[in-house]
Amino acid sequence: MIRLDAATVLLQWATGGLFFLWFTTRKHEMGAGYGWLMRSTFLLLAAGAAAAGFYNDVIIAREIAAIGCALAALLTLKRKNAQWDLLAPAIGIIGVIAGAIDAAHGAGGITVNLLRVLVGTAFLGAVSDAMLLGHWYLVQPGLPRSILGELVTALRWITPFEIVVMLLPTGMFSVLSGSVGDGWGGMLGWFWVACAISTIVLTEVTRAALREKFYSAVMAATGLLYLAILTAFGTDLVARAVLA
Question: What is the pTM of this model?
Answer without folding.
Answer: 0.92
